[in-house]
Amino acid sequence: MDAISEQHLSRLADSLGATRREVKTAAATARANPFDAKDEPGVWDDHVAIPVKTASFSASKNWRVAAVDGGVIARELHGSVLSVLKACAVEFTYLPDGSFDVKSGVRAWPGKRVPIMVSTEYGLDSTEFHWFVNLSRLRLEIQAARRAIEQFTPDVLLLGGSIVPQPADKPREHSILNDAYAEVVESFKALYQDCEKNNVLLAGVNKDSRGKQLTHYLPHVIPALAPFRARLERLGDSVFLSELLKEGERSFAFAYSQATDVNPIMRDLGPWAKTIASYYLRPSALDRPVRVDLFLPELLKGQKGAAREKVNASASWLSRLCAINARYAYPAVLIEADLRAAVRPDEFERVLAQLKTKTGANNPVFFELRRNSRPFR
Asked: What is the mean pLDDT of the chain?
């Protein structure tokens, strides 16, 4: 490495080191000072960091935990967008002591072999390409989630990611994808209804959250953090909480959105928007916190105490489920769903080749973009 590059890296390392020291100081300040959120809507706890009691699922029965995930490979072509997708649900049974029930094994929908689904659309620009891919994947995943409830009747249903559509999933006004978005929103509502009707605890586990709700919020309820506000607002929640939370702790629980009438996604969900709460959980000192989104229909009935109990219970058993690996603290049942739903590159290429064969080798709809097919680099 030449001297200029080495000097640049040294300056960058010094800057990053100074940032981390400041973040550590802010985390220590947050733990040492009062957390006054009693007058804040959508915050239910009295402390910024709360110890989690690691307990068994139940003292008297086995627990069935289902998980859903999806995979997709998509490509922009000259005249179309092609997506190759999979989605599946798996179920693990856990004994009262929290151990995996080997006798029950792993149940799966739609079966051991996950079928490939193909979705295509024409005339999309680059922004619409991302909407199309996200909506296609969500539609398939929520379908799998609803079938999991029907087939498995689980006690718990875990989704890999959020249980709410994301802002990046909502097309612009007058987009040809608005009908697809509306269909996905209705699918989420139907999933909430299924979970409430069948008494299924629905949770989304986001292993790589980029949320910034807590880092924006904490300086308002912990005045001692005011000097760190500019730094915190540039950080993601997970980065800051990696310094603040200890192993076996969760953050305070908070409403998924404080402004359900303003947030366009939450407004589309209607009354269900008020049933979603979130918290961060750190199951291992060697891994970062995960974000957990919970469906809490008790909130629509004014049963805040029951909702709080469900938050505590979910943190307890999720902490146990994530304890399989100190450096990768994530539920095994979700890892299984993720592995089964992964789309291999050769599967995508095979689908594309078959479409070209069936529609004609020189069909311009399936030409590669020039930036991806030039004969030189």
From this structure: 90
Asked whether the beta carbons of 128 and 177 are under 8 A apart, the reply is yes
Q: How many CB atoms lie within 10 A of CB 357?
A: 9
The SS3 of residue 75 is: strand
Strands 276-282 and 63-76: unpaired
For residue 197, being part of any structural domain is answered with yes
Instruction: Please report whether residue 4 resides in a domain.
Output: no
Where are the strands (E) in the chain, listed by range? 49-51, 63-76, 80-94, 106-109, 117-122, 156-160, 201-206, 249-251, 254-255, 276-282, 290-295
* 366 assigned to some structural domain: no
The closest alpha carbon to 159, from 141, 171, 182, belongs to 141
CA neighbor of 243 nearest in space, from 221, 215, 222: 215
The tokens of 5 are what? 């590059």
| Residue 255: Cβ within 10 Å count | 22
- 8 A C-beta contact, residue 81 and residue 124: yes
374 is a domain residue: no
At which residue do the structure tokens 């922004």 appear? Answer: 127
Nearest to 90 by CA among 73, 74, 114: 114
Write out the residue range of the structural domain in which residue 173 sits.
11-354
How many structural domains does the chain have? 1
CB 316, CB 53: distance < 8 Å: yes
More confidently predicted of 244 and 80: 244
**Which comes out higher in pLDDT, residue 89 or 80?**
89
Q: For 277-307, how does the pLDDT look when each residue is reduced to its tens digit (9 = 90+)?
A: 999 999 999 999 999 999 999 999 889 889 9
Question: Rounded CA gap, 47 and 158, in Å?
Answer: 26
* CA–CA gap between residue 305 and residue 196 (Å, rounded): 17
> Distance between CA atoms of 204 and 164, rounded to whole angstroms?
9
Q: What pTM was estimated for this model as a whole?
A: 0.92
**Residue pair 116/64 in contact by the 8 Å Cβ criterion:** no
